[in-house]
Amino acid sequence: MASRAFTVTLEPVAACNLACAYCYAVKGTAAQPDAGLFLRSLARIGRYAADQGFDEVHCVWLGGEPLLAGHAFFEGVADWTAAAPAGIRVRHFLQTNGLLLDDAYCRLFKAADVQLGLSLDGPQAVHDALRRTSQGGPTFPRVMAAAELLRRHAVPFGCAAVVTRMTLGREQEIYDFFCGLGCGFRINPVIPGPGAARRNVLIEPEEYGRCLVRFFDAWSDPRGDRVPVSPLDNYVVALLGGELRECQQQPSCARQGLGLKPNGDVVRCGRFQDRILGNLEEADLDALLAGREPDPFEARVAALTGCHGCSYWRQCHGGCPHNAVAFGRDLQARDPFCAAFKMIFSHIARALSL
Ligand code: SF4
Ligand code: SF4
């Protein structure tokens, strides 16, 4: 039987050591986490997941830059993992810009079987255009050094590339770059934030759709050094009638996970910068969630009447509620990238002769 995973997106610090032009996060300045508070909150969420009958907890570490939390903090996380509630398997996934990775982190992550995601947008010209230090300096050489360090320690990792205006038309070059690196990658469209709006890096849904199609065509080439590209691999599985692996494809992401902020505030998903449900130092999780009945995230699937007749309803379910909100729409609205989804789903269906 497939395991049931409860996903917790964790933000131990809101600060970051970079100043990427498209960042949507509301950054704080305190780089040191309140480790006691944060680990108490995490333990409460772990117990909640066990009580709800989940058999895995997936901890997805995001930021700010999570490695600013420090080695001692992550040693505390490893201790908590070892003492997780009976019957619960805890798995860790950590997204980092890589600049703070060192031998000690690599040893810790290898021992704890942490899956690393390295933020890398592609070749140097693409990456350094928008991912820069607060002094405006380049970061590409340091990210490549981090990749090399992970390799030396045999820590498994993939990359995460943000799709911006810089990406458009360079999909083959970017795919070739990751093939050369020998590393699978995930593409995510840039979403609005103070930086993205100011620098005019946002892309239209149709542009994102054409970009996904070009990545798919590059990825379809049966060359010897192929690497996986998400979410395209997950879309193929879904179109073939298989498992829906993306949170954004589920009928509802409600009750499948939560986000935890540095001060113990709980959100539905870590991508939300507001819409705080409450604080785990002040109320228990059952009480916080009970105050959300009827749950607007659960209600969304019924409210998306314009989607119900869509040929790709099973593979999409209206997409991501956070995207809807980030683009200034209502939580109950369909994902603004609807046109992109239709374009890539129909392209894959044609390629597979479905
Ligand atoms: S809000 Fe979007 S990103 Fe967050 S869990 Fe739901 S579908 Fe996933
Ligand atoms: S592709 Fe568009 S219309 Fe179809 S289910 Fe997704 S968001 Fe709705």
Can you give a write-up of this model?
The mean pLDDT is 91. The protein has one domain (5-230, 256-293): TIM Barrel (Alpha-Beta Barrel). It is globular and about 50 Å long. It has helices spanning 35-51, 71-82, 103-111, 124-130, 140-152, 171-181, 194-198, 205-220, 232-239, 285-290, 296-303, 313-316, 321-326, 338-351, and strands spanning 5-10, 56-61, 89-96, 115-119, 157-163, 185-189, 229-230, 257-260, 265-267, 278-279. A ten-stranded mixed β-sheet has the order 7-6-5-4-3-2-1-8-9-10. The chain is built from 14 helices and ten strands. Helix 8 (205-220) runs parallel beside helix 14. One iron/sulfur cluster (SF4) is lined by residues 247-248, 253, 257, 269, 271, 320-322.
Tags for this entry?
14 helices, TIM Barrel, 38% helix, single chain, ten-stranded mixed sheet, binds iron/sulfur cluster, 354 residues, alpha/beta
Report the sheet-strand fraction: 5-15%
CA gyration radius, whole angstroms: 20 Å
What is the number of independent domains? 1
The helix-and-strand class reads: alpha/beta
How many β-strand stretches? 10
Low-confidence segments: none
Please, how many helices? Answer: 14
Order of helices and strands: EHEHEHEHHEHEHHEHEEEHHHHH
Shape: globular
**Major sheet description:** 10 strands, mixed
Mean pLDDT: 91
CATH superfamily: Aldolase class I
Name the strands of the widest sheet in spatial order: 7-6-5-4-3-2-1-8-9-10
Tell me the CATH architecture. Answer: Alpha-Beta Barrel
Terminal Cα separation, in Å?
28 Å
Helix fraction, binned, reads 25-40%
Instruction: Name the bound molecules.
Output: iron/sulfur cluster
Predict the CATH topology. TIM Barrel
According to CATH, what is the class?
Answer: Alpha Beta
